[in-house]
Design brief:
Helix content: 25-40%
Strand order of the largest sheet: 6-7-8-3-9-10
Largest sheet: 6 strands, mixed
Number of helices: 10
Shape: globular
Structural class: alpha/beta
Distance between the termini: 39 Å
Length: 298
Amino acid sequence: MVNAAPILMDTPSSAPAKSSAYKPTVRLSPASLPSAHAPGAAAAPMGETLVDISHLDFFYNTSQALHDINLKIEAKNVTAFIGPSGCGKSTLLRCLNRMNDLIDGTRVARGTIKIHGVDIYQPDVDVIELRKRVGMVFQKSNPFPKSIYENITFGLRLQGMNDPAKLDEIVEKSLRGAALWDEVKDRLGASGMGLSGGQQQRLCIARAIAVEPEVILMDEPCSALDPVATAKVEELIQELRSRFTIIIVTHNMQQAARCSDKTAFFYLGKLIEFADTRDIFTKPANAQTEAYVSGRFG
C-alpha cells in the first residue's frame, strides 16, 4: 500500500464564518493524493483495494440517501453500480470525488471514504487535487464550447502546461485512448459541439483521461446514446481497464454484465449485495438481487 501525502485545503485567514453559501478557497498543494503520475507515488496494483468505503451515511438535508455503505473497490477493475432509480448509486458515485459538495444541504453524517488510505472528507483535503485524481464522465455529454483540441488541453493548461509539442502529444494520445483520433484528427480546430452524441461522449472521456487520473467515474455514460455509439463506449471501457480504475453507474443489466468485473446492487439507499459480476447475474446470494437482475422489479 502506498503511503499517501495529504491533499491540503486552505481557507484564508480573513474568510467569513462558514455558511451554506460559503465555499472555502482551495489551492493546489505540492502534497497530493498519490497516483501513477504524481512524483514519488505509484498507482495501486491490480487487485489491491484502492477505494475503501466504511459505514457511510449520507444525507440531502434531512433525507437520508445512503445507509451504512461498506464497500471495497479494487484497482484496475471495472465496478458497476446497479439498482432501480433513486436507490443511491449515483449519489455514492458523486461522493467519490465530492461532487455532492456542490449541492446545498448535503453531508456525510457518518463513516469514511478512503482512497489510498486517505479519508477524502477530512477538512484539509484539497478537493481540486482530488478531482484531478478521480475524473468523471457524466450521463449527458458536456463538451466545452471550444475546439476539439482545446477541450482536451483545457485541464492541462489549468495545471500550467503550455508546451505546444507536449500538448499535441497528449491530445493525440488521449483521443487515441478514447478511440476518437481517426475520426477527428483532420478537424481538431472544429468545435466539439459539432460532433455526434457518441463522439461527444468519447471526447469527454478523452478530456478526462488527458490529465491522467487514477479513477474514472462514469454516471450512466451510454443512457443517451444509440446502440452503435453505446458499443463503442463499451469497447473503450474494455481498453481503458488496464490503465484506470473504472466505476460505472448503469441501468442496463446487459451492459453491467458485459463491462464489469464486480457489481454492487443498491436498493433504497442500501448496498444489498456486492460480488463478482458473474455471480451477481448467475447465482446471486440475495433474493432481492435475484429479483432485480431477472427483471421482476425495478
